[in-house]
């Protein structure tokens, strides 16, 4: 029984094996066993069945999921996975040394990646599919990672103190960050290459209380339960968060703005956006923007009710994949999937009859093809007026696109074939797209892969590794220089164009951009956030509200938008606010392909871009007339890839924690996560067809629509607590994989409890870089209690680590009888 009165009941077989989990009289999980008492069928809360077949050694050899998904597994004599066969893809292989370390992985295309190991089974080298070798070095006492050497011989280093804490971090190009700690091992200061210092102070509970930067002091407030309730910025603005009796976020305030959340039942969330108090008489609806989200028992979106009562309904197949999205006013989008769970088709347009798909009149038909390793190999798109294009993609052995072959009647001026080359570290070194030749194979990077030259454009950086100027050279013209200004937290605060046009940017304490303005143009945009998605954009001209753009997302995929502004049909008619509702259809990367009105008519599509997002044609350059008069250039939501907001003034994309330049496929600053975000700290993603980076921190291969979160993780996102939300999401994934629940036993909370396992989930970096601090008295007690309870109940004690674990921590856990599992245990 939870403190909120929610009851969880467990059912068991006659042999004492867990057979069901029930919550609020609803079965959350059902388990059936074979005659050897092995889990044979798992039934989730939606009734979807997952079947497993076993070998004579009790190892799973075939797994079948709903919707035709299946996986065959092969095992070597020491019970290590040696082969994997998925539907629609080629066979994958795994090879190990005598210690059980993975030596080689072979993907579905037959490409081999290899690993080398040194003392204590620590990885010392990795060779990618193209034969490029990365090396790793460790501290001889603590065995912590201290250096990574890339194929070009550049090093990323960590300097440790006597306690094993990182005191200095030096990137590939020599940019240095220094750290200081208190007696408890908590970081108290960070100093960048410009000697800009950020100071951190904590309260008696170890929670962050103040952050002091050269720009001022930011303070944090908490309630008695330890939940964050307020963040107060140096500029006088604040963020506040309120909670209901079940601990769910029910209100957030951002400056003068507020969003309320209501939960009428377990599967419904109502979001209410309140207009600024001094603008409520000028608001387009003269009321709040109320959006209702309904989810099924598995947490999958099933319905959205927009302001104005337009309803979008989402239908899913037996595997939970979206197959139909349709509005009660005519718009519809159908999606098809293959047996591997990959999207293979999209059809969107007008759906006059709800009884049969024969009634769909598509304005967009899109088909996807994949190679044996699951990479996108071809995309065919057919649009209104006979516009048809086909793009085929050729990849290297690292899965990076080297050529795009374009054909069809839909190609516009400036569009055509594309070609790309990469250096040994995976960065672009040559690219051409259509009539654009951006860069040749020349020495275009300075140390650490900071851009030095790309075509006729020159780049300069400061001592903190941030781009500060971009100069374009054209024959017969003076150089044109654009300048960028940054604060101590690597947030862009100012941009000056080559013509002297100044833009200013403001951010909240969570690093989210809340405003951009240009005084010369007398234009200003404000941004209201729902977690890490923008919920509303307001545009002001001459200090008067000009337009309001209301945005609705599912994860990082745009579903719908409502654009409102004052319009005057005739000089004799008084101006009035007019709202237009549009629905988005996006590609695999979350980029909107088209916007449709409520009746399913096309109102906007983006111009064609290169693989990395460089504009090759303008959105208005459709090449075809619009006899219906429905085309609306103001409908452009301003999105490139998932989480990327285009800035017309600079040509850059705001990507939450960083800024992205589509022309070069590069970020302007190094990854805030350092190597934790990937070894290429300035690059976007290895392949923009198969990966996204919606936060500007780390790539993910999960399609934008499939980024689903638990209620707790979703609430953390709404507070702007990104890493905490991703950590909670990891805990959810572990719990889902093991098929267990969190449970309090004898006054102690255990993260995952099943019939065979008791597990604790660790989401801290100190398990890697500060084992002494990690193995505190309380942590050692938790480990011992977990192992003792597991032994009493005849179960296995597992400790899951999201980021990794030092040999010292692993040795301690295993010496007590526990088992260490890294990542998702794959």
From TrEMBL:
Domain called Teneurin-like YD-shell: residue spans: 26-227, 367-527
Domain Tox-REase-3: 720-822
InterPro entries, sorted: Rhs_assc_core (IPR022385), T6SS_VgrG/RHS (IPR050708), TEN-like_YD-shell (IPR056823), Tox-REase-3_dom (IPR028905), YD (IPR006530)
Keywords recorded for this protein, A-Z: Repeat
Keyword tRNA-binding recorded: no
Full protein name: Rhs core protein
Organism lineage: Bacteria, Pseudomonadati, Pseudomonadota, Gammaproteobacteria, Enterobacterales
Gene giving rise to this polypeptide: wapA_2
